[in-house]
Design brief:
Elements (H helix, E strand, L loop, with lengths): L4 H14 L11 H4 L5 E10 L2 E10 L6 E7 L10 H14 L2 E6 L8 H18 L5 E11 L1 H16 L5 E5 L16 H18 L18 H5 L3 E9 L3 H13 L4 E10 L10 H13 L3
Parallel strand pairs: 3-4, 3-5, 5-6, 6-7, 7-8
Antiparallel strand pairs: 1-2, 2-4
Amino acid sequence: MALSREELDQVMKVLADTSMRPEGGVEYPEEIKAFEKLAHVEKMTREVNGKAFIVYQCIPKNMEKDAPLFINIHGGGWYIGHENNDLYFSCWLAEKIRGVVLSVDYTTSDIEPWEVMFEQCYDTLKYGFEKAESLGCSRERISVGGYSAGGHLTAGVALKAAEEGYNLKSQIICYAPLDMIEKEQPVTDDPMELRMHLRTHCFFELLFRRESKYLSNPLANPSIATDEMLKKLPETLVITAGKCGFRFENETYAFRTAAQGVPVTIKRFTEARHGFIPHFVDYWEDAAKLMVEMITEKI
């Protein structure tokens, strides 16, 4: 049974009440803000099935010939939109790969459920393939990646791209929910764990609106992708955080993919927490270096 408007409002209230985000957002230091100056940013409005969304096109000043192109899909529980740190990180990444980054500001789950944001991310991938050469990029060096909710969307996008004949160079999945069957509430008195379980439940409620059809769709629930689907995937990098509950399902997905003959690299940052990469904390530079190596590696 789908969520009513009243139930949607209640879910969003729980998310607002349990948020630990500082009022006014995070204030990043000047050296992080300066990353935005490493690339020229064009804000494009695109539309899929009557729903408008934004793509930030980041073109570095040090662009190389036949450059790589990376589709960046942000996190935030499918509920929080594109933020300053996403743009800082996208510009930093564009400069490091010496190529174009397309950063997708998809319609969030408080507005529309999964299929809308998914199709917007997939549309951005198709745009990347269509425009690669005019952007100075190679169609053979196109990759997609994301963090948390963005990693979940990445997995689905890569599966669909493989089925439809878009030959990605690589996919990068970072600490993402991939098994979308909700877990039982943990037996614990730890208020942080209980809070995270409640928030995850609310995120899932908004994303799928209690529609069971999504759980049987491997594009929405990548953990049920068949071996035949996994076999078609591009080279894969999976980055997990030791203090993130998604690490086990990420690594299971990685091992399943590797078992089908796909080149897979798995790296767990044992002391890192969920969300560390585009928020510039913990071991973000070490993880981002792995991403750069994967994206720029010549075929």
